[in-house]
Amino acid sequence: MTSEKNIRVLNGWLMLVVNIAVFLAGIGLIVRFVYSAVEADKIGGLPNFYYLVFGILTIVLAIFSFNGHFTQQPNIARVLILFGAYRGTCRESGFHWANPLYFKQRISLRARNLTGERLKVNDKRGNPIEIAAVVVWRVENTAQAFFDVDNFEDYVRVQCESGVRHLANSFAYDHGDEHELTLRGNVDEVGGALQKELQERTGKAGVVIEEARLAHLAYAPEIAGVMLRRQQAEAIIDARQKIVHGAVSMVQMALQDLAEKEVVRLDEERKATMVSNLLVVLCGEKDTQPIVNAGTLYQ
Question: What residues does 82 pair with on adjacent strands?
Answer without folding.
Answer: 85
